[in-house]
Design brief:
With 238 residues, the protein is α/β, with parallel strands linked by helices. Helices cover 40% and strands 16% of the residues. The longest helix has 29 residues. The termini are far apart.
């Protein structure tokens, strides 16, 4: 299959990392289905936008169906949709618990299950999960976010589990675990503090996460990998 024939689904695609991934995939000749709660229609021939909450099963089904109807297949799924809520553990509410599970785990589960079912029919496919390095694997005293750690850590674990489950069926499953990245999620007045959380002394850029996703997309012998793009934070304390 030529790269120009591949069809990718990107969730959380309206801004930041998701929007960057969409742009780069289109530039490489992919046909893309982009999903987000709020997304502007651009009219590009190789891009279809689906507005909706990917944590809802019916939206996940719509995204997969859209890819099949418009482009005939699903080759790659980029699970980028997610929520981050820093707070002391005892201060989380039941509503916040439910929301984080729905977005970070439900948003992964529903669309991944449906996408992998399509990939199995072709015996080929790739799933990339955008998780977290600082919160899921390198907890920070000054940045409590236990519910984010529960959900993103769960996605890290299931990345390896699915990689093993489907390795002999032509489907790869990988993850990118970013540090703090310069996106609309982080207000500009927090960037100086966030830079101190990385040994390299700066925050990351969207393109650096996009580059990691594209590497995994092309790395045919890599599966079950959690690729840390975090300025060295995952290496240990400093």
């Amino acid at each position: 299959m030529k790269p120009t024939e591949k069809v990718a689904i990107v969730t959380g695609a309206s801004q930041g990392i998701g929007a960057g991934i969409v742009r780069q995939l289109l530039a490489k000749g992919y046909r893309v289905v982009a999903c987000s709660r709020k997304i502007a229609t651009t009219g590009q021939p190789n891009l279809v936008e689906v507005a909706g909450d990917i944590s809802q099963p019916e939206i996940a089904s719509l995204v997969i169906q859209t890819a099949k109807e418009r482009f005939g297949r699903v080759d790659t799924l980029i699970n980028n949709a997610g929520a981050f809520l820093p707070k002391s553990f005892t201060e989380y509410t039941e509503s916040e618990f439910t929301t984080l599970l729905q977005v970070n785990l439900g948003g992964f589960f529903h669309v991944s299950q449906r996408a992998i079912a399509e990939m199995l029919r072709r015996e080929s496919g790739h799933v990339v999960n955008i998780t977290s390095s600082l919160l899921a694997e390198q907890p920070l005293k000054g940045l409590p976010a236990a519910l984010t750690a529960i959900t993103k850590g769960g996605v890290n674990a299931v990345t390896r589990s699915l990689a093993i489950e489907y390795a002999d069926k032509g489907i790869r499953v990988n993850a990118v675990a970013p540090g703090a990245i310069r996106t609309p999620m982080h207000a500009s007045d927090t960037h100086t503090f966030l830079a101190t959380l990385h040994p390299m002394g700066r925050i990351g850029e969207v393109q650096e996460i996009v580059d990691a996703v594209l590497y995994l997309e092309d790395a045919a012998f890599v599966t079950g990998e959690i690729l840390h793009v975090d300025g060295g934070a995952n290496a240990g304390r400093w």
